[in-house]
C-alpha cells in the first residue's frame, strides 16, 4: 500500500519509542561527551509518555494524533529536545490535517512543515551540529525520491539512509547551537545526540512503511 494510516503512524511512534528506549544509554553517552548526559533519558521518558497518552485516547485523524504527541513531548521532556521534537510533531499534524492516511507526498510535506517549525523555534542551520543535520537531508532525499516516482517505502528508505549519513556527518562539526556550543572546538569529534535520535526516527518510519 502506498499510504500510511493512523495505525501506521501509531506503529511509527511505537517503533521510535522502542528505538530510543533500546539506545537510551548510547544517546546519553553521546550527550555526556558534549552536553549534560540526559538525551537518552529525555527521549525515552518522552516517548513512553506519548505512547501512554496515545493508547489511552486513540486518535482517528493525523492532526489529533500528532497534537497529542507534540503536546506530550513539550510537557514531559525538559531541555531543548522536548520543545523541538514537540514542535516537529505539532506542525506535522497541523499540515497533514484531519485525515486518516497520507501518501508519500503528503507525508513529506507534513514532515517538511515540522522541520520548518524546528527551525523557527531553534534557529538551527545546516552544519550547526543539531538534529537539523539529520532531518533536513532526510527530507531532501525523500522529496528527490518522490519526484523520481518512488513508492512510499522507497522514499522513506531514502530518507532513512540520508538521516544516517547526516548523523555521521555531525561528528567532525563544531556545535553552534544548544549546550554543545558551550564547548566550542571541543564539541568536534563526537556525534550529535539529537541527530542520532532523529536518525532513529527515520529508521522507525522506514521500517513501518516497508512493503
Ligand atoms: P538539552 O541539551 O537541553 O539537555 P537534549 O540533551 O535532550 O536537551 O537534546 C540535545 C539535542 O538537541 C542536541 O544534540 C541537538 O541535536 C538538539 N538541539 C539543541 N539545540 C538545538 C537548536 N537550537 N536547534 C535544533 N536542535 C537543537
Ligand atoms: Mg542534554
Ligand atoms: Mg538537559
Automatic annotation (TrEMBL):
Cellular component GO terms held in the UniProt record: cytosol
Keywords, ordered alphabetically: Kinase, Transferase
Broad EC category: transferase
Residue span(s) of domain DhaL: 7-207
Keyword Kinase: yes
EC number assigned by the record: 2.7.1.-
Recorded superkingdom: Bacteria
Any GO BP annotation: glycerol catabolic process
A molecular function (GO) term: glycerone kinase activity
Protein name in UniProt: Dihydroxyacetone kinase-like protein
SMART domains named among the record's database cross-references: Dak2
Keyword Phosphoprotein recorded: no
Pfam families: Dak2 (PF02734)
Chain segments annotated as transmembrane: none
Listed InterPro entries: DhaK_L_YcgS, DhaL_dom, DhaL_dom_sf, Dihydroxyacetone_Kinase
